[in-house]
């Protein structure tokens, strides 16, 4: 798909992977809407890059529906969705204080998995009604999985299962939406220099970076964004989860 002139939605667009992707899409000529629970962060970036910032809880059907409708009204119906909104809470299934908090587990699933599906269903519905492009495409949807989907560590039961759900969603969604000319992909990042990770002590960051075979450093959000752009532009990429991890395989803990 030629990105120039297309309407794109980036969830979690106020920071980290989402912010880098929003910047990259604007540089390619897209009209970009940034969805984020933190409207202040999204608005700051939107002002800088000329995008549209909207407060949105991606796990809420009503919130997301209203936000997508507003994007269609102000920027045009979206053909591109990049799901970057997510949370990462750790907790052992059986810890010192007893069993894992069920509401915490539910919250991680709601934001990471249900939120991604919620946005996927709404944007694919909007895109399915558009005229196909010269390539036959009507839309491209990218969600963010994680290497934890495959190498989940101790304490990552909620996060790993939410990201495994995204990986498991990708192929059946691609198969179902193929009749509309909508491609569905996922990216599974390894250890990236997002605000959450960069807030950790430097020695922790260095230790994590050293565990990556090559390059032995934290991934850059811009590298995620570059892969997202390539997926959008390459029409044969469909129904797959791509690891973006420097060949890391996570240890149990």
UniProtKB/TrEMBL annotation:
GO MF terms on file? Answer: oxidoreductase activity
Q: Where is the signal peptide?
A: none
Q: Which UniProt keywords apply?
A: Oxidoreductase
Query: What SUPFAM superfamilies is this protein classified in?
Result: NAD(P)-binding Rossmann-fold domains
* TM region(s), chain numbering: none
Q: Which residues form the Ketoreductase domain?
A: 6-190
Xref: InterPro entries: KR_dom, NAD(P)-bd_dom_sf, Sc_DH/Rdtase_CS, SDR_fam
Protein family per UniProt:
Belongs to the short-chain dehydrogenases/reductases (SDR) family.
> PANTHER family, from UniProt?
17-BETA-HYDROXYSTEROID DEHYDROGENASE 14-RELATED, SHORT-CHAIN DEHYDROGENASE/REDUCTASE
State the name under which the record lists this protein. Answer: 3-hydroxyacyl-CoA dehydrogenase
**Which species is listed as the source?**
Phyllobacterium zundukense
